[in-house]
Specification:
alpha/beta; Rossmann fold; 6-stranded mixed sheet; 4-stranded parallel sheet; 13 strands; globular; binds pyridoxal-5'-phosphate; binds zinc ion
């Protein structure tokens, strides 16, 4: 199949060579996406090949992204790929969480099992491969979160220099620590996120640095693998709902594109519905969809949530996400800080755990089930986007009743689990443990 970049705007649809260094459409400024043309490979044969590759020791086949490479055939030479064996994430049944949400059963597709602990790795391996193909020596992003951690790892593994731009005084230490360890040049700029983005675009052009920000169409292609791997793990049985948190809405765009293409390519026979969950203080997509027909998209100027991975006021990929939510008959919900924190503790009690943004899924499902929007008997898969260890401060503060919301209000330790100080005394400890 041949691959091209195409402008996402219906009124434009300009096409560009897959090897052009572009982030937005030069004609209209719209988002870009990869399109493939030519004969689609036989669906049965693809499924067989993908299953057989699980037995292979070849690095490309061991990757839970590149194993499915026929589904995003934008590369001409697979020697450009650097894999840390991303993907390969489990689908876990969670009865405790199901009961909490009012569902008969729920499964978590846990992207926190990735090499750097988030789904960003699924996309970054593709973005890094494209950068290598273009002969780039340096790559950059603006982020204090999981994108930085992932980009730093993949760039260093590929022998490129990672450069990270951070809004000054807005550092998330857990994730930044990963970026430093993986060797990223880290620059703190005295400006806000949007100003830095503009600055980085100028620098990227001047210094020949490739940008791996959230709108990078190749990252979106890689994130499609999350849906393909999920369907492969379920023997191609389509669930009723796929639920995920929404920040910049890149993942929503990737999941929707993957599902549409899987249906077009004959890999699945119907579409599941997408449910996107946002944090109340950072919910521009929710507000937009609930304003009704004719509404204009209004960014949230000062987004607020402890779930930093979805603390995004002006999500770049919202036009794509809108198409995907509409196409699947999906919906968008918002949840409070308290709801996120309690849902997160319940996911912990399943022996699974996740970072705060990921827990928005279970909180949202609980709300949607109780409102009757999701049936209690429905087949639901929630995607946990990040690892439990990304944000240990949050966890300790929650369980010890010290967690404060972004506005300073206390968050109740509904399912708190305090460590207890005991004397060095077997009798008294035995009594405490009820023995
Ligand atoms: C990036 C990220 C999100 C948000 O994904 P978008 O594609 O920006 O909507 C959610 N959770 C985690 C853990 C993330 O790293
Ligand atoms: Zn355009």
């Amino acid at each position: 199949m041949t691959a091209e970049l195409i402008c996402f705007e219906r009124a434009c649809r300009a096409r560009y060579a897959i090897t052009e260094v572009l982030y937005n459409c030069p004609k209209c400024g719209g988002l870009l996406e990869a399109v493939y043309e030519g004969a689609v490979p036989d669906a049965g044969q693809m499924k067989k090949t993908w299953r057989e590759r699980r037995m292979s020791n070849a690095p490309l086949d061991q990757s839970g992204v590149w194993r499915y490479r026929e589904f995003f055939p934008f590369l001409d030479d697979y020697r450009h790929v650097v894999t840390l064996r991303e993907g390969n994430t489990p689908v876990l049944d969670a009865p405790v969480a199901a009961a909490y949400a009012g569902l008969k059963r729920i499964a978590f597709k846990h992207q926190g099992f990735n090499p750097t602990g988030s789904f960003k790795d699924n996309g970054m391996t593709c973005g890094a491969a494209q950068a290598m193909r273009l002969g780039m020596k340096r790559v950059a992003c603006v982020s204090t979160g999981n994108t930085s951690a992932s980009m730093a790892a993949y760039a260093s593994a590929a022998g490129m220099q990672p450069v990270i731009f951070i809004p000054h005084g807005n550092i998330s230490y857990g994730k930044l620590a990963q970026a430093l360890e993986y060797g990223a040049r880290t620059l703190q700029v005295e400006a806000n996120f949007d100003q830095i983005l503009a600055l980085v675009r100028v620098l990227a052009e001047r210094l020949g640095i490739y940008l791996l920000n959230s709108i990078n169409p190749f990252r979106i292609e890689g994130q499609k693998s999350i849906m393909v791997e999920l369907m492969d793990q379920r023997d191609w049985r389509v669930p009723d709902w796929i639920v995920l948190p929404g920040g910049n809405l890149g993942n929503t765009s990737a999941f929707g594109k993957a599902l549409r293409e899987m249906k077009e390519w004959g890999l699945i026979d119907r579409l599941p519905r997408l449910a996107v969950i946002q944090a109340e203080g950072s919910a521009p997509f929710y507000e937009f969809l609930h304003k009704g027909a004719g509404a204009v998209f209004t960014p949230v100027e000062h987004p607020k949530t402890l779930a930093t991975a979805i603390k995004i006021g002006d999500p770049v990929s919202w036009p794509k996400a809108l198409l995907e939510v509409t196409t699947t008959g999906g919906l968008v919900e918002k949840v409070s800080e308290q709801e996120i924190a309690d849902a997160k503790a319940q996911i912990g009690l399943c022996g699974i755990g996740c970072e705060p943004a990921s827990a928005a899924t279970l909180a949202g499902i609980r709300k949607l089930v109780s409102a009757g929007a999701i049936d209690g008997e429905a087949d639901v898969v929630a995607v946990l986007t990040g690892n439990v260890l990304k944000d240990p401060d949050y966890i300790y503060h929650y369980h010890t009743g010290q967690l404060k919301g972004p506005d300073g209000a206390g968050i109740r330790a509904t399912f708190g689990n305090q460590p207890v100080v005991v004397p060095n005394d077997a009798e008294r400890i035995a009594a405490l443990l009820g023995a």
